[in-house]
Design a protein that fits this description.
Strand 5, helix 5 (139-150) and strand 6 (155-161) form a beta-alpha-beta unit. The chain is built from 14 helices and 8 strands. It is α/β, with parallel strands linked by helices and 336 residues long. Helix 4 packs across helix 5 (139-150). 40% of the residues lie in helices and 15% in strands.
């Protein structure tokens, strides 16, 4: 009886192994990915041993700076529409956060608020960015306000695009993209480090936008290939269990007095508009712009409009000072 049981278990284990090998999606080749997804503006900045951050530095070097951080499971490529719209007058610096894109995993597997802010600061230091507007989408928005809390002397303003950091009652897990729901399942999420079908990436990406026509095959390929950049899938799993620090409470946000532009899509099923309204209420110097029929990534789905709103904001933040005019010299009293 025991012998038969062992044989049956062996058959099941063998079948599971075969299925695993059939459905397993191997890592992409790092060198191939770097050749495919870098540009002439790309460079790699060493933040610490083993952590080389992929950065794009575009626009006039002497121009005011906008530093941009992407969201979870994305890459710096999400900002290409804004770079196209804004880099004629502004210096746009974007980068792949640790565990994403061509940067790859953090050598210490550290994805806490402290480590993610440290990576952003390493970029600012390497590029001598002493004052800039910092912006971010989703997790990148969370990074932006956390950076501002730690380095307020560097931050001239913030742009929060469907940013994370506040929990509201309207949060609905059913609205999460399928990839995020799988990562939240203990046990099952371990398979996501090896089995990540392209169809799952496409479904998750389509859940973040309203206009389905704007999701291209090339974009799906990029998300899928960069997720499988060596170490990124394990990094994604590590991020979900990493400490996030405190929420964006009213007390913490009250200290951020720099001008802030908040942008949000009405159809964001990942982070609802109520979160944007909460940021606007808690930040003392903010403006909220809501885009109708737009999802979680307005910088891509409504690129021209959202970039135009950012341009207007940057013009206010970086407005040249009024020229000094000496007081008029009083006319001499006529001699009697």
């Amino acid at each position: 009886m025991m012998k038969k049981l062992l044989i049956a278990l062996g058959v099941v284990a063998g079948a599971l192994l075969i299925l695993f090998l059939i459905f397993r999606n191997p890592d992409t080749d790092a060198a191939e990915m770097r050749a495919k997804y870098t540009s002439e503006a790309s460079r790699f900045i060493t933040a610490e041993p083993g952590l080389d951050i992929h950065v794009r530095d575009e626009g006039p070097r002497g121009a005011p700076v906008l530093l941009l951080a992407h969201g979870a499971s994305a890459s710096l490529h999400t900002w290409e529409p804004w770079v196209e719209e804004l880099s004629d007058d502004y210096r746009i610096v974007s980068y792949d956060q640790p565990g994403h894109g061509l940067t790859g995993p953090h050598p210490r597997r550290c994805y806490s608020d402290v480590c993610m802010v440290a990576a952003a600061h390493a970029v600012a230091e390497a590029l001598d960015l002493n004052e800039f507007v910092i912006g971010g989408n989703s997790m990148g928005g969370w990074l932006a306000w956390n950076y501002a809390l730690r380095h307020p002397d560097r931050v001239a303003g913030m742009v929060l695009v469907d940013a994370a950091g506040i929990t509201v009652e309207e949060d609905d897990e059913d609205g999460l993209p399928i990839g995020f729901r799988i990562l939240a399942m203990p046990g099952v999420n371990q398979l996501a480090t090896q089995i990540t079908p392209r169809s799952m990436i496409e479904t998750s990406l389509r859940q973040t936008v309203v206009d389905q026509d704007r999701v291209s095959e090339a974009e799906i390929d990029r998300y899928w290939e960069l997720l499988r950049y060596p170490g990124n899938r394990q990094a994604t799993l590590d991020r979900f269990s990493a400490p996030r620090g405190e929420e964006a409470t009213a007390e913490r946000m009250a200290t951020l007095t720099m001008p802030t532009l908040i942008q949000w899509g009405t159809e964001d099923t990942l982070i609802p508009v109520a979160v944007g309204e909460a940021f606007d209420e808690r930040l003392p110097n903010s403006e909220l712009i809501i885009y109708e029929n737009v999802g979680h990534i307005p910088q891509e789905e409504m690129a021209e409009r959202s970039a135009a709103d950012v341009r207007a904001f940057l013009q206010r933040v970086y407005a040249p000072p009024e020229p000094y005019l000496p007081p008029p010299i009083p006319e001499a009293e006529p001699a009697e």
